[in-house]
Structure formats: C-alpha cells, structure tokens
C-alpha cells in the first residue's frame, strides 16, 4: 500500500524539489497532520461521548454516573481512542525513517498507557466516594488504602511506559527493581510505615474521622478531620491544624475521647479544700439549724450513738444535691470522699458524670454546681482553705 508520505514525497520530487529536502518536508507535514488529526478526533469523541454522558447525567442523575463524570473517568477513557487510531495509522503515513516511525508509535503507546492510568485512578476515586457516602465510612476510613493503590497504579504505569520507550519487557524491569528493593523501601519508607499504621488503626478501630484525640506531648488536641496514607489531620480547639504521621500514633500513645462521647456521661473530678481548723463535731443545736436552713438535710438523722462532724454532713449534702440534679447521670459512678490531708487543707473529692457532654454546656454545668457547693460550705460552719501570707 502506498503511504501518504510516499505519495507526497513522489509529488515533491516530481516538481523538481531536492529529494533530501522533500524527505524532511513531507515528514514534517505528516507529523503536523497527525497531531491535528489526533486533536480533532479527541475533540470529536469528547463531544460525542462525554457530551452524551453529561446530557444523560443531567436528565437522570444517579450516584454512579455523577461520580464517573466528577472524577473524569469517561473523558480519560475517550482520550485513548484517538491514540489507538493514530497508532495504527502511523505505518501508512511515514515512508522514510523506520526509526522515526518507531519513536512515534512509542510516544503514542505511552500516551495510551497514561490515559488508561488516569482513567483507572478515576475509578479508584469513584470507589472511595462510594465508600465515604456510607453511614459507617467514618468507622473504616479507606483513603489511605486508596492512596496506596494509586501509588502502585502509577508506579506500574511508569514501568510499562519506560519499558515501551526503551523497548524492554516490563518483566525485565520489575526483575531489576527487585534487586534495588532496599533502595525503594528507603525512598518509600514513610508511605510503607503509613500504610501499615493505617491498617492497624483501621483494623483495631483505634481512630476514626470525627474522633476527639489528644497527644500526651500537647502537639495535638482536637477533632480528626482526615486520615491519609502519610498524615492524620487534626483540627485543634484553637482552630489550628496539626498533621501527625499515622505510625506515630501506633508506635506511641494518644488519648481518644470517643469512649466518653459514646458513653452516658462526661466525668467531673474536682476537689474542694476545707480549712482543717473548722472541722468539728456537730452539736444538737447545729443539727437543728442545718435541718432548717438546708432543705435537702431536713430528714437527716444520725445513727444511734453517732456524733457526726460538720464535714461529714457536708459530704452527705453534696451527694444528695448531686442526686437531685437531672444533669447528673445516676447510673454512673458518683463518689464523694475525703482524701488525705495536705498543706492546702482537707480535700473533699467530688466525682460524678454529667449527662451533657458538649464542651460549652459541660463547663457551664460543672461551674454552676461548684459555685453552689462552695457557697454552701458556710451553712455547715466550715470554711474553705485559702492561702495567705
């Protein structure tokens, strides 16, 4: 079959053009024509197929076709069609220089491999989008795994492209890479460690998107916003963003507040320090006064033969007061105890759980409760310890 290049070359030589110049001229024209045809075919196929897909998506917007268009899977697949056509047209266009024909076909093949790689990458992102739209996606974040597959995809695509350009089998290149596995492990150390840590974090449900976590060194204390192959992004309470390598969380320790958020309450654990010199046994007159002035103690009767102290009555009052509050979860621990004396007085530990776990409301509730308890100290003829020079 007479090629287009051969016909053009013969025509130019027939017009008296020098054969060397004719060879260069016709191959340049052919190269320009090929590029123009490739671009024109690409626009044509994009208009037909991608335009039709957009029209269908607008008329019948389903999750799958919307995501395929969003991640540009169809456009990347369409890019391969002009490349395939041009690849098979190339032998019928060049007449001189088998090496130039071979180079052009290699470049075309690399273009096809790249377009397919981007299309497959789009499919991986579509899979990730499908997963993220599920209700339990926060429990099993997949972004890190998809990133690993993306790295492998483009790595394999690069090996295939290089094997095409140097005219070697991909298997030969992979075999050669096996000998340099140690170097690759060093280069991709963070990615490998991040992948392994991501598997551990996900499999053991140690971390989810939306968890409140705190690191002991204070570098992060906030909500997990994103879990990727190499980083865990945490939005701190001051609205700054901390990025932590996943393997740091696995190899070290961190505090996850998810258990508190999923439980029936948030813990309050504070001490009230009493002046030791104000502790004393209650007289019958003191008991009568307390019963009259403190409604929650109106029915209090000491055990037979018992002479209670004012600190003991105060502890009983604290427990009764907390049990009367709807915001205190009675199903969880509620402990009022006297701790070992210190140089700062006698500490009374107040330990309970607030039903409301929202930070702002939690702080307001415990502040209101302790304001009340601090004021009520004087009703029991006690004083708070306050340091003075």
Automatic annotation (TrEMBL):
Location relative to the cell: Membrane
Species whose genome carries this gene: Bacteroides intestinalis
Any one Gene Ontology MF annotation carried by this entry is: mechanosensitive monoatomic ion channel activity
Keyword Transmembrane assigned to the entry: answer is yes
Q: Name one Pfam family in it.
A: MS_channel_2nd
Q: Name one GO cellular component term.
A: plasma membrane
Q: Where is the Mechanosensitive ion channel MscS domain?
A: 190-258
By its UniProt entry, which PANTHER family does this protein fall under? MINICONDUCTANCE MECHANOSENSITIVE CHANNEL YBDG
By what name is this protein known?
Answer: Mechanosensitive ion channel family protein
Residue ranges crossing the lipid bilayer per the database entry: 29-52, 73-90, 110-128, 148-166, 172-199
Write the signal peptide boundaries.
none
Q: What keywords would UniProt list here?
A: Membrane, Transmembrane, Transmembrane helix
InterPro entries in the cross-refs: LSM_dom_sf, MscS_beta-dom_sf, MscS_channel_2nd, YbdG
- Chief subcellular location equals membrane
Q: What does the record list as GO biological process?
A: cellular response to osmotic stress
């Amino acid at each position: 079959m007479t090629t287009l290049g051969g016909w053009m070359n013969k025509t130019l030589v027939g017009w008296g053009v020098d054969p060397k110049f004719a060879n260069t001229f016709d191959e340049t024209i052919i190269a320009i024509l090929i590029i123009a045809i490739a671009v024109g075919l690409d626009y044509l196929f994009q208009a037909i197929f991608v335009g039709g897909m957009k029209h269908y998506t607008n008329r019948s917007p389903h999750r799958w076709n919307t995501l395929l268009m969003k991640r540009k899977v169809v456009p990347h697949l369409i890019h391969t069609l002009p490349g395939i056509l041009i690849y098979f047209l190339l032998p019928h266009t060049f007449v001189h220089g088998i090496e130039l024909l071979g180079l052009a076909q290699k470049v075309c093949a690399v273009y096809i491999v790249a377009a397919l790689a981007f299309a497959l990458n789009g499919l991986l992102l579509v899979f990730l989008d499908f997963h993220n739209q599920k209700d339990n996606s926060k429990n099993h974040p997949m972004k890190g795994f998809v990133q690993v597959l993306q790295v492998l995809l483009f790595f394999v695509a690069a090996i295939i492209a290089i094997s095409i350009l140097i005219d070697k089998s991909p298997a030969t290149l992979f075999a050669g890479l096996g000998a340099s596995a140690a170097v690759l492990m060093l280069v991709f150390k963070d990615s490998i460690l991040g992948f392994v840590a991501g598997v551990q974090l996900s499999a053991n449900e140690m971390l989810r998107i939306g968890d409140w976590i705190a690191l002991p060194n204070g570098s992060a204390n906030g909500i997990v916003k994103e879990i990727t192959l190499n980083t865990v992004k945490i939005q701190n309470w001051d609205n700054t963003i901390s990025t932590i390598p996943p393997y740091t969380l696995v190899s070290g320790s961190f505090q996850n507040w998810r258990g508190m958020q999923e439980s029936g309450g948030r813990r309050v654990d504070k001490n009230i320090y009493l002046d030791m010199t104000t502790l004393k046994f209650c007289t019958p007159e003191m008991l009568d006064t307390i019963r009259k002035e403190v409604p929650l103690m109106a029915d209090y009767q000491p055990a037979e033969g018992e002479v209670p102290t004012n600190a003991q009555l105060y502890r009983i009052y604290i427990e009764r007061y907390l049990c009367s509050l709807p915001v205190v979860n009675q199903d969880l621990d509620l402990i009022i105890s006297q701790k070992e004396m210190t140089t700062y007085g006698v500490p009374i530990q107040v330990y309970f759980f607030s039903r409301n776990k929202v930070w702002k409301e939690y702080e307001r509730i415990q502040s209101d409760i302790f304001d009340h308890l601090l004021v009520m100290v004087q009703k029991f003829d006690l004083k708070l310890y306050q340091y003075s020079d």
